[in-house]
Amino acid sequence: MKLSKNEIADFNKSCNQDYKHENDFLRSKFTKKGIDIDAIIKKVADFQVAIPSWALGAGGTRFGRFSYGGEPATLEQKLNDVGLIHALTKSAGTVSLHIPWDIPEDINAIKEIAANHGIVFDAMNSNTFQDQPNAEETYKYGSLNSTDKRAREYAVEHNKEVIRIGKALGSKSLTVWLADGASFPGQLNFQTALKNTEDSLQQIYAAMPEDWKLFIEYKPYEPNFYSTTIQDWGTSFMLANACGERAYTLVDLGHHLPNTNIEQIVATLMHKGKLGGFHFNDSKYGDDDLTVGSIKPYALFLIFNELVYGMENNPQNPYPAWMIDASHNIKDPLEDLIQSLEAILMAYAKALLVDQKALKTAQLENDVVKCQEILQDAYNTDVRSILKAAREQAGGAVDPLKAYRAFQVRQQLIDERGLEVQATGL
Ligand code: LRH
Ligand code: MN
Ligand code: MN
Q: In what helix (H) or strand (E) does residue 322 lie, and over which residues does it extend?
């Protein structure tokens, strides 16, 4: 199924138009502070977040998986699902593929489907955390860090293959996340594991086209429960520096130990020009991959406050590659992704409302109370009308979730694809 512009425009006419008055009120309030609401609406409309191909079906936990009817079984169907989200939100104009879950059989056909939906290919993801059928080497004890030279070479070769596929699709970056580590003390020599990882990453970096970027993702634990070779931003940063100037750290919000100050990590990396990519999700305990903004929306706002500051003040940092990295156990995956996009854009819009000039003055005066008031004044502003106007301007649905239900998208997908299909992925 495909949603046409006209269908969405007609739906918008049936929606409550109060958001326009709400924006008039915001305009009169924020103009006094020198903040331009229409410029913020434009920035929100322009913000694009990649949808990961593996998030379009029901995820599972290690205790079970509950299928969702109408899940996409092929890459073509996954792209069609991203197309639906993009048609409704106009903020999901990019997709991130995971190889080998998404090996395209006919590259040109895939490119054509994506182009028809107005979707481009963002970072490619390699997978050296699972053994594939007929694999010649095993990743059971590691991949890029393995004690076995042949396993390391096999993993490097896989990454080169991902680069080749990405190049054909028009992608410009590779994300490497490694499950490599140890589940028990003594299992690994830390220094050798780090050295092997560095050597392997350098080979992958050298195989990238000149206009590509390498994103190195970190994670403190899971699937290994004693140590992970790339456990934190510092290790990732060090490895990125060892690779070269087009290698960067990738921050996944779920990849931190509880209470880590992620906004400070963001600020540090942007200051050094090394924040390359960002995976959005939310968590209560670990890498829970929950809907963005469902648990800690204020933390997300503080992170966006640093991202906005960095995008405005750190020309040494490239524009980051944004992606949602969430998984859906009990919700309709497409509804969940729409909710995540909404939360991301709300945090972004609120961060854009921060009165940076007043904040700087209050910081210089060490007026701690005022600093907090300035941040919370932005955070406590209801920005949903800004998002509605941004989507309306871009040709999307004013209320995408309501539209998704009104158009009975899930039922139509079930009618097309059946109840029993299962998407490839986690
Ligand atoms: C690892 C991770 C990484 C993978 C994805 C499936 O936890 O965040 O980005 O590629 O999940
Ligand atoms: Mn991730
Ligand atoms: Mn993760």
A: strand 321-324
